[in-house]
């Protein structure tokens, strides 16, 4: 795959930037497949399914598979709303700028703040997936102890994850073209490997698709029966199917983004649903036995080695490793664009430095490095308190769902008030389906956020030591991060907000205020 160089002079794709008062600074080099690859690598079929199968299966048995289509339907409504926004506003920091444009600057800042914190946490969480795969390929990758010590696994996970985060930091610092080349190659390998895995599972099936009706008695102990277990197990799917907005966040570096970004968003989530759903279904149909603890501890890694044998199985695990790598790279890339977008509006401390693009690499290097360092710092929590890291990771996903609500909810208000005007000229639009789809997106986002944040010991404090602050950790920390962050914005940052002079379309004009709700 190759990128297409941007011709010299003003570019017709910069029209939407002018509506925000920004002058173009990022280099347009990404084509159609690059934007699709960015979205699908963030979702990452192999990363998410391999990292979280053990949790879903252990919590809900084989019937947890039904959470995959359930989450897809809900998230697809969000993706459709995002696709319509991407056709109208394909700008960096998509969620932040969309919320700011169709809502107000205060809501936009809160959505951007929560998305930024969540993205940094997600980088660390994705990087920890190395531990689930590398030691199963070879014991040589268990650098700390032999894996049987109390903190061997957690500490080794931090070591492996730190190597990956250093890699994603370096790649992003050297510009979007290098990132896109690596990401595109990785996604191509991941897609091919996923199809091959589906075929190999299919030729080894030992039971029929009715396996997805088995619950393994996981509903026992829940007042609502299996529904309680299913709602917990559904988090395994909810933790995977997000990040499709990355294609729009790279809009200022893409060619023809108003047409490519919406298509990339929809294709990324649909491809992830189809391929991921088949992997999960055929894994349950082909594994030699549904009994034993391996399925709920080692997850899909165990299934691959069990079904394919050590040689082919380990070859497939190397492909999973590539998928984890490009997933972490995509999450880091999206976080950098979000930080750049917020800093360009003078909405972060030291904004003028954070929004500065390297004249050589055409990318904001300082936020790239800072985000990498913060992700490394978060990893340290996992060394002695892995349960706390589970809480922190869950908080990250909750904040992403809340940030998405910060877009779909004001978009719904704009529709109801007749203020939403989709893009014209044949670009993506939901037309008369816009209102019902938007309503479903808001209802889904609110319902899943409640399910994610609900203080359950089975999610937030499943093993000793049992502490109330772990069980209630999601509620407490989300409240602190959202409340504390917004308090900082309200009392300090909002008095300084406005497009920085060096980033304004008309640098001779007065400081440009942030745009309010769209009225066109």
Automatic annotation (TrEMBL):
One of its GO terms (cellular component) is membrane. Its main location: membrane. The chain crosses the membrane at residues 33-57, 63-86, 107-133, 153-175, 187-205, 225-244, 265-287, 315-340, 361-382, 388-414, 435-454, 466-491. One of its GO terms (molecular function) is transmembrane transporter activity. Coiled coil: none annotated. It is a multi-pass membrane protein. It holds the Pfam family AA_permease_2. It is found in: Membrane. Keywords: Membrane, Transmembrane, Transmembrane helix, Transport. This is Amino acid permease. It comes from Streptomyces phaeofaciens. The lineage of its organism: Bacteria, Bacillati, Actinomycetota, Actinomycetes, Kitasatosporales.
């Amino acid at each position: 795959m190759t990128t297409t160089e941007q011709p010299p002079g003003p570019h017709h794709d910069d029209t939407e930037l002018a509506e925000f008062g920004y002058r173009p600074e990022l280099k347009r080099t990404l084509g159609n497949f690059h934007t699709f690859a960015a979205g699908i690598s963030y979702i990452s079929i192999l990363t998410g399914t391999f990292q979280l199968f053990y949790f879903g299966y252990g919590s809900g048995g084989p019937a947890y598979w039904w959470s995959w289509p359930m989450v897809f339907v809900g998230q697809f409504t969000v993706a459709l709303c995002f696709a319509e926004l991407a056709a109208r506003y394909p700008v960096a920091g998509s969620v932040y700028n969309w919320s700011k444009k169709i809502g107000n600057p205060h809501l936009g800042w809160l959505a951007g703040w929560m998305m930024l914190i969540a993205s940094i946490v997600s980088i660390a969480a994705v990087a920890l997936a190395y531990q689930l795969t590398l030691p199963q390929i070879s014991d040589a990758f268990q650098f700390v102890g032999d894996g049987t010590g109390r903190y061997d696994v957690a500490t080794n996970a931090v070591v492996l994850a730190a190597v990956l985060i250093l890699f994603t930091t370096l790649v992003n610092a050297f510009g979007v073209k290098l990132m896109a080349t690596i990401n595109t190659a990785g996604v191509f390998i991941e897609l091919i490997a996923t199809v091959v895995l589906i075929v190999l599972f299919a030729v080894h099936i030992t039971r029929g698709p009715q396996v997805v009706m088995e619950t393994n008695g996981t509903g026992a102990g829940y007042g609502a029966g299996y529904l309680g277990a299913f709602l917990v197990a559904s988090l395994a799917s909810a933790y995977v199917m997000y990040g499709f907005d990355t294609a729009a966040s790279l809009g200022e570096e893409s060619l023809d983004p108003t047409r490519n970004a919406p298509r990339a968003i929809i294709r990324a989530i649909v491809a992830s649903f189809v391929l991921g759903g088949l992997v999960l279904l055929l894994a349950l149909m082909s594994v030699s036995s549904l009994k034993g603890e391996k399925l709920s501890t080692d997850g899909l890694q165990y299934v691959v080695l069990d079904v394919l044998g050590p040689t082919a199985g380990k070859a497939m695990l190397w492909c999973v490793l590539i998928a984890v790598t490009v997933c972490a790279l995509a999450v880091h890339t999206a976080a950098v664009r979000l930080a750049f977008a917020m800093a360009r509006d003078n909405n972060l401390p030291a904004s003028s430095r954070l929004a500065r693009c390297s004249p050589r690499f055409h990318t904001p290097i300082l936020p790239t490095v800072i985000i990498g360092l913060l992700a490394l710092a978060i990893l340290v929590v996992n060394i002695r308190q892995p349960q706390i890291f589970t809480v922190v990771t869950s908080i990250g996903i909750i904040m992403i769902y809340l940030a998405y609500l910060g877009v779909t909810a004001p978009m719904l208000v704009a529709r109801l008030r007749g203020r939403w005007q989709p893009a014209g000229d044949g670009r993506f639009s939901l037309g008369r389906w816009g209102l019902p789809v938007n309503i479903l997106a808001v209802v889904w986002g609110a319902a899943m956020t409640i399910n994610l944040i609900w203080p359950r010991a089975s999610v937030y404090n499943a093993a000793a030591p049992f502490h109330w602050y772990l069980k209630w950790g999601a509620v407490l920390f989300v409240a602190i991060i959202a409340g504390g962050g917004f308090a900082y914005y309200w009392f300090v940052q909002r008095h300084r907000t406005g497009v920085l002079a060096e980033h304004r379309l008309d640098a001779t004009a007065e400081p440009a205020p942030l745009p309010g709700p769209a009225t066109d």
